[in-house]
């Protein structure tokens, strides 16, 4: 009766907490203090139906979490398989015994069960032969029933806490991503929020560009093998699988998946979530872990919700970028408009000043454009403007900007370009316009051009633009269809364009 009373008190102690690790420590403490065992461990069942030691006392390799025993192997595995206690009074005479602890002479393994499902095993070992008598086995078996209930309570509590935490994380991500419309900032923000909210080691965001998935952002502590801007085929790897199925793809041991494409040196587990908005495949978010078996099935649904939020936020950012681009583009010619020019010029002047770079501004005016409109009509005049703009773009680098300054006047912004090089570009542009046959116009169309350079002709917006405009006026005064550098320009008020 005394042992039963002790067992009752011990059971109450085990059931007094809901924290899993605390429950496990309470169980092992009771086993150690009341039953005087050399060593004991509580092995739990992982998602691949293998046993691993979550908590223990004593010594032995079996107690490392990296050691996994298939159910059915060893004394503990047999107990889990048969769903009943297995006692071996002399382990040296039992072929099923796995020799992890050299000093063990007898072993008792009791399955921890909830509703006929094995959730773990209480493994008790002694350095004495025939250590466990029938009464002790019965008491430990009864105690294991209480321990199983405590484990289930802890599991439910942990699951509830995890769900609450996940819901809070989902709400936080939804709130914070809704407020960000700049795409690059959004992608960085998403990586940070996921790292803060979920137990992963690295987050990668890839965006679909044609048949490729391009790395657009990543953050974490792993070592990348694919850098920013790197591309992978959209139909390969675990990410390709996620896109093809429109569902999360979870691999808890990437070494065993032939489709896995290594993105990080230390990755052991990976979950890829497709980013899909209104049927459009936007990309994939990949969650990396340096631990095998890192992702639980209960993680999938909340992370799919996060992926849906991210997809919507990216789509909104795309719409914002498109709207912003349209606001900066001249509707007739497709060139940037004057508002964009003013903003970009201020940005490039600041950059040139900071890094000691040169910057050229080229102003161009179509010669006798008013006469062309009067003679051939405004529809043909509009077409000339469109084709002139296209010819400008064809002659320039990708980092240069063609802007419609107003009416028939254009301005070219050439970053990191000297005045001498800008003159060569301007002359190339002038010749291209003169040589082009504009449909419906029986005579050549020409342009007058003025070129100014920062810092030679000014450091501010007004100084550089005025210098280029004065050079343009000098070209018109000099007979049109020519290029003039600002240093050779006369200072005068520009006449009305014609």
From TrEMBL:
Please name one Pfam family that this protein belongs to.
GAF_2
Q: Which Gene3D superfamilies does this chain map to?
A: 3.30.450.40, 3.30.70.270
The record's Gene Ontology biological-process terms are:
cell adhesion involved in single-species biofilm formation; negative regulation of bacterial-type flagellum-dependent cell motility
Extract the SUPFAM superfamilies matched here: GAF domain-like (SSF55781), Nucleotide cyclase (SSF55073)
Q: Where is the GGDEF domain?
A: 357-488
Kindly state which reaction or reactions the protein catalyses. Answer: 2 GTP = 3',3'-c-di-GMP + 2 diphosphate
User: Its Enzyme Commission number?
Assistant: 2.7.7.65
The protein here is known as: diguanylate cyclase
The organism named in the record is Candidatus Korobacter versatilis
Highest classification ranks of the organism:
Bacteria, Pseudomonadati, Acidobacteriota, Terriglobia, Terriglobales
């Amino acid at each position: 009766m005394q042992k039963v009373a002790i067992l009752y008190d011990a059971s109450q102690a085990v059931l007094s907490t809901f924290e899993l690790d605390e429950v496990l420590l309470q169980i092992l403490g009771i086993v150690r203090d009341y039953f005087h065992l050399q060593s004991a461990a509580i092995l739990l069942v992982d998602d691949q139906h293998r046993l691993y030691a979550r908590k223990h006392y004593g010594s032995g390799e079996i107690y490392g979490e990296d050691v996994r025993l298939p159910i059915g192997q060893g004394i503990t595995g047999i107990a889990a398989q048969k769903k009943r206690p297995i006692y071996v009074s002399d382990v040296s005479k039992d072929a099923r015994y796995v020799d992890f602890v050299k000093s063990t002479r007898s072993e008792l393994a009791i399955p921890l069960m909830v509703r006929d499902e094995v959730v773990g095993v209480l493994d008790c070992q002694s350095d004495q032969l025939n250590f466990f008598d029938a009464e002790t086995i019965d008491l430990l078996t009864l105690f294991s029933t209480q321990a199983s209930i405590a484990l289930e309570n802890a599991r439910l509590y942990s699951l509830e806490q995890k769900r609450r935490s996940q819901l809070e994380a989902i709400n936080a991500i939804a709130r914070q991503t809704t407020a960000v419309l700049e795409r690059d900032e959004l992608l960085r923000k998403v990586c940070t929020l996921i790292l803060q909210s979920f137990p992963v080691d690295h987050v990668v965001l890839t965006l679909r560009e044609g048949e490729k998935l391009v790395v657009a952002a990543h953050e974490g502590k792993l070592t990348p093998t694919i850098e920013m801007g790197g591309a992978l085929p959209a139909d390969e790897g675990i990410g390709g699988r996620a896109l093809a199925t429109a569902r999360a793809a979870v691999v808890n041991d990437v070494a065993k998946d032939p489709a896995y494409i290594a993105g990080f040196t230390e990755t052991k587990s990976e979950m890829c979530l497709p980013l899909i908005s209104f049927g459009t495949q936007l990309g994939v978010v990949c969650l990396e872990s340096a631990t095998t078996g890192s992702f639980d099935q209960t993680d999938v649904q909340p992370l799919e919700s996060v992926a849906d939020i991210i997809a919507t936020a990216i789509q909104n950012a795309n719409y914002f970028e498109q709207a912003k681009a349209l606001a900066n583009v001249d509707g007739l010619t497709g060139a940037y408009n004057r508002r964009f020019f003013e903003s970009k010029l201020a940005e490039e002047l600041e950059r040139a000043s900071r890094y000691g770079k040169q910057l050229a501004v080229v102003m161009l005016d179509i010669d006798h454009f008013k006469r062309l409109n009067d003679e051939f009509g405004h529809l043909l005049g509009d077409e000339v403007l469109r084709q002139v703009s296209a010819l400008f773009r064809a002659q320039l680098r990708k980092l240069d900007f063609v802007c419609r300054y107003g009416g028939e006047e254009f301005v070219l912004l050439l970053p990191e370009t000297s005045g001498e090089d800008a003159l060569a570009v301007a002359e190339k542009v002038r010749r291209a316009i003169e040589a082009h046959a504009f449909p419906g116009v029986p005579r050549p169309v020409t342009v007058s051009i003025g070129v100014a350079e920062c810092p030679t002709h000014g450091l501010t917006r007004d100084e550089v633009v005025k210098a280029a405009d004065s050079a343009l006026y000098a070209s018109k005064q000099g007979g049109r269809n020519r290029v003039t550098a600002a240093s050779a320009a006369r200072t005068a008020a520009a006449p009305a364009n014609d």
